[in-house]
Predict the structure.
Amino acid sequence: MLAALAVGGFAVITVGLLILQIQDHGYFLRLAQENRVRLEVMRAPRGAIYDRNGELLADNYPSFNIVFRPLPAESTARAKLVVDPLWVRQVSRLLEEDTTRVTELVRKANRSGQTATLRHNAPFPVLAAVEESRAEYPGLEVVIQPLRRYPHGTLASHLLGYAGEINDKELVEREQQGYQAGDLIGRTGVERTLEEFLRGRDGAEFVVVNAMGRRVSTLSEGPPQRPEPGHDIVMTVDLRVQQAMEEAMAKVSRGAAVAIDPRDGGILGMVSRPAFDPNEFSRGLSFARWKQLSSGGANPLLNRAIQGAYPPGSTFKVIVMLAALRSGVASVASRFASCFGSYHFGGRSFGCWKREGHGSLDFPGALQHSCDVYFYQIGTKLGLARLEAAALAFGLGEKTGIDLPQERRGLVPSQAYYDKRWGVNGWRKGTLLNLAIGQGELLVTPLQLALMAAEVATQGRPVRPHVVKEVRGAPDFHTPRPLQPGVAADPAVWRAVQHGMELVVESGTGTASRVQDVKVAGKTGTAQNPHGNDHALFVCYAPADDPRIALAFVIENSGHGGSVAAPMAGAVLRRLFAPDTSTTEVPPVPIPIDTSGVVRGD
Amino acid sequence: MGTKWRLPSIDIALTVAAFLLVAMGLSIVYSATTVPGQHEGLWAKQLLWFGFALAAACLAAAIHYRLYDTFAYILYGISILLLVAVLGFGTSAMGAKRWLELGPIKFQPSELAKIATVFVLARRFDDRNLDLRRIRDWLPPLLITLVPFALVAKEPDLGTSLSFPVILVAMYFWAGMPPGHLLLGLSPVFNVALFFLTGSLLWFAAGFAVLLGAVRPKLSTLLLAVAVNGAVAYAVPHLWDQLHDYQKRRIETFLNPGQDPHGAGYQIIQSKIAIGSGGLVGKGFLRGTQKGLAFLPMRHTDFIYSVVGEELGLLGALTVVILYAVVILRGYRLALQARNGFASLMAVGLVSALFYHIIVNIMMTIGWAPVTGLPLPLLSYGGTALIVNCIQLGLLQNVAIRRQEY
């Protein structure tokens, strides 16, 4: 039986051989003699990207590459002729390309039988010249390739990311996934996280060409495979919000801002300064330019909104207040030792940002005026564990799980952290005082700050920040669940915190973010920074009674949150909620005042 | 009387056929690598490999097969460890991890695993009280085969991994599993295959009913078969629908790399042109045109048969088929002749693995099977494959020498 199976198998092969070598011999011999079969790749365009209202954020446009296709019809002798120096000189002049490069590419193409791209994205004069002289240079051809285009330039560049040509290393890693040399691959932003949806499937067909390399017909052997375009993507981003934020931050040299919809966690806008133009990558970067972008001092490729970690400064007082109220160490009416500009603890003096002092304040008042002395006292009562628990509940110190690459965690120090750093019990309670005003080891990302504001707005409802709303043609695509269970506290506690934040904007440190007829709740922050001038921070949400947007601004090395960051938030909110009532002009960022060496809460 | 030295009773036909195949392989490797600048002189390296392979084959034939029986599990254990090692720190080529590098030597543990699996299965099946209708008799061999199969499939090397189930099925049959039951056992595979071919489960359901009627299995077997097939029939379409488009695409390309026109599709077309243009007598040795200018990639390894077809024509291609047929048929004959159960089973397992490789490779070059990256035994360039193939033949000679022993 097994032997019969074996004989059967060999018989099948024999039949196959007879068909190929006897029946179809003539056909294949003709193909082989002229050896004119060539594979033509039809590049699939990447999916387009839209904002939540259908505004285009990224698409493709045809670009023209000039390629050299080795002529298989001729013998090896002819192939050698082709690398004739005269030919190379003429072709190089035609393409305005380097002769050594052209020689190298043509030689490689002749060796491997594969098509070589001599010039990417050729300008029209070069195209015209090539088309005119094609008869003289067999093998030279123009092919169309879709290139990525970002119509708004630098707008939302950190959200979108960019797509660049695949490199050799990635090609080896991803060969199984069908990547080809010359393919585009998403490098950062959604271009990277949704790479698998955005990229399409290239098509291909086998064509018969004549001796001059011109296409004569399509080979029936392998039917052509049409290219399948990638899926289109709809982002949660609102172009209006994004534009308002970009304009507000236009003069900022370094910083980031995030706008989030507190109801579902959709990112409405995200700005990181300095920005880059993703179109540059489509056009092809010089090595020098790439170095400048990727490792220059300002590092424009860094998405500071999710990869920058900053001390939260006084914006953290929102969390401290909630922690204190929900654990009962203080009530809304609690008044502690009055603020006379500083607070003595453990033999040290801890200053308040307002040197003349705030006097006696209740809890909402302390938040409203960002009184450091009040929060020092809360910190000592609260203790590290409760503070840490509240910060973690708000999602600080952990990745939010946003669908963008390389998010940073930030840092919420714990008992174990200090034990490891300073030795068991080697650290002082003074550390706690610093934490209570958002200084010390605390580090958060602007995204985490926006998330914090959003959670206050919705009384602790958990959301997962995300930037992709929908993948067209993939109805089963869903945003993953929130990573945090949300923040638990009494409604009364939430109301008190919200009330405190409303006071901040109404008549506290954040009045610069006021909007006519719309109630805004916010908190300012001025974060000390060991490496230079203070960072200005501001978080807010609006409208306070029906929150639809939460914002966080972090402006590096530029001074006070109340005078630098809050006006930017105000400008954005006014454009969204009261576009007619005032100008959208943002006051210029003031020249940084040297404040180093002074302990500041606000 | 007195002891007179005489030649061991090796199988002459098999030996001659194998030598002829290796000789053809060497000359075709020589021809396929005459293109200037690429892989020149590989035939000499291959000749060196053949020296090692011959020595290995003699050793494999000289050692009494009882020793293989004894050390079956140990060998199997080692080869599994090596397969795990490959996944951990193997060398990748074209996206798959298949090789372990030991200094200058690269070797593919999946080849060793194939032989070790044959030993273990032969040992298990060499049992008079075996009743392969009982679950405790058929399940352990299945699991034993599943482990290397899964590890090799994970590399991923689908082509090689499928030789494990082929070995198992052939040895189940040889060990006496009734064909009806064997078909019953294979039914989930047909189930999935028919679903993908026809998109409906009706064809399978009809065939399955006929099969059940013919076999009339015990109630427990019947229930198991129905349950497994039901589960598969339910799960496959559902799982398929659950997948994203790109995941489906990835599976499709994995199962059938020929769908990828840039890589495998191109090779198939070029291979067919090469073979077809060879005609009856071929273009003559060293005269192939397709192999020039790199039009036929992998021409000295996986697609060496295309060069045979192009240069030596139908006559040469059929000669190769006939030589392979001699090897395979003599192999099965040895299995029949062997009086020892282990030896007989071992022969069947080894020959079936060889047969699978030959058939799939040749079908691939004529465009009737997906491109899965299998070398053609004895002909393709490659050290590990040649040595392992020669060891397999040496083990068959081992059976031949001792076919009279119990």
Chain A has a mean pLDDT of 85.
